[in-house]
Give the backbone structure.
Amino acid sequence: MGSSTVKAFVTGAAGFIGSNLVAELLARGCEVAGLDNFHLGSKRFLEPFVGHPGFTFYEKDLLEFDGLPASLAGSDVVFHLAANSDISQGTARTDTDLKLGTIATYNVLEAMRIAGVPRIVFASTSAVYGEPRRFPTPEDYGPLLPVSLYGASKLACEGLVAAFSNTFSIQAWIFRFANVVGKNGTHGALVDFIRSLRNDPRRLTVRGDGTQTKPYLHVSECIEGMLFALEHAPERINVYNLTSEGTTSVASIARMVIEEMGLQGVDLSYTGGPRGWPGDVPFVDLDSTRMKSLGWTARYRSDDAVRAALRELLQQY
Amino acid sequence: MGSSTVKAFVTGAAGFIGSNLVAELLARGCEVAGLDNFHLGSKRFLEPFVGHPGFTFYEKDLLEFDGLPASLAGSDVVFHLAANSDISQGTARTDTDLKLGTIATYNVLEAMRIAGVPRIVFASTSAVYGEPRRFPTPEDYGPLLPVSLYGASKLACEGLVAAFSNTFSIQAWIFRFANVVGKNGTHGALVDFIRSLRNDPRRLTVRGDGTQTKPYLHVSECIEGMLFALEHAPERINVYNLTSEGTTSVASIARMVIEEMGLQGVDLSYTGGPRGWPGDVPFVDLDSTRMKSLGWTARYRSDDAVRAALRELLQQY
């Protein structure tokens, strides 16, 4: 990805990870085309790129197939990040992830096939593992029985990526992300807690019992890891966990948010139960051995990634 | 399933496995409602049940959601067999399996959720394993990287079944079938070879180099195994390979067909290459240990299942 001639197409370009990725790709000298329907993404996140000669933007919904092959034509690689990343929303309306995840991903792959785009990077998730019996969970863990419809959709997309890759000779990199945090975050524990405490600094209600524990990866390292593997992992289909070391509980995050905001005497309460919401997975720990063997490790540990992200988010929200 | 009060709903009831399952469920005293759109299924396969007091039939496409919850209401268990089982068709039109597999399965699960149906049996496939590196392949093999869009769709359906099961308390049995053969088969090597030789008994052209080797399971045992596991496997989500012992090559099948038809001097030729068609998997061998531990084993070995199926099919075609 070091060459200035690389043409990258980013779906979900106005989203959390997408907007950070566009910034990094432009910084590395790539030509970048971005696409977003502003479902979760924000026009504000695109402002830094407006007028940049290397940046083109398509406001478009991936459920509209027409025109998609033409938009993708000439791209060297598609970073497919667009999705509904709000798990609880997928449980409330059960066809959310089928449409915004599975069918949208089919459209991207079908358009790539027609346009002859040779490479895809797909943002998957630890949620494909459901509630595994092995920790840290390696990439070859099975069977994959997701708890959430979000996880089910990401698994469906992984299968579609694999089948298109095998049948139509598209090279693929599938990353199963830990919880990604940092600048331009749109939802999740950190953003939710900050918003809640900005609104009422006297109390914070945490969904679940606070013991939900997961690895948090800083978005800068998420992007660095993807670009590293894209350069160094040579298989036709490359599947990698992308995670930091260590894990952080939701209760710790609540304490860190209160600390970073300089608040005192906050009435901290928990709704109780092991899950924050239906479809939540209480414990996640991803095996990072495969990325390490490739030569890449996250520098921030999970707690440090949360701390760094909080400082960025407190400047935004 | 021994009780006469069990109400079973069978999707794909006019299909190969569906029609055999309906016959067995009626024989066991169940009330059976069947649904089919006659995409691959045949009205002829339903003739034995016409007028049976325990049988109801819905001619309906699973892509039409309206009315589906009402049709399912009151069922104790759904056997969801409807799918496009013709792998090469899914490669030619890439949205075939997305629609007839993934979206149809979402509709079944959503209708079950609304109607409060507590149990699903889902017909999956060895194709979810793609081209695994471990033989015989066990249920906990990963990562699952299907070769065909058919396999991708079945993987997507497994994920949907798991997520609906976990989120909405539906109990699930997922069976990854070997190649199923027998009465009412609609396509596949056996049927294709018989049809070709009925048409021209002097020559037979086999797709691929004939070395494609897979386990073949007789449809009667496929059904017996499903019903056994439904009764004996108690987890919320139960995933089982359903296979015979041994494997059979396509070249052997060709020889057996010629033998059973009593033909001589047939000019047998091969199109060449390791795959019969794009998306074909050249070698399959499924680990049957989990079903054995539950107490069930197929009696026919793979070669014997093929032989028995051939004799049944030769009476039909």
Observations:
- Residues 96-115 of chain B form the longest helix (20 residues).
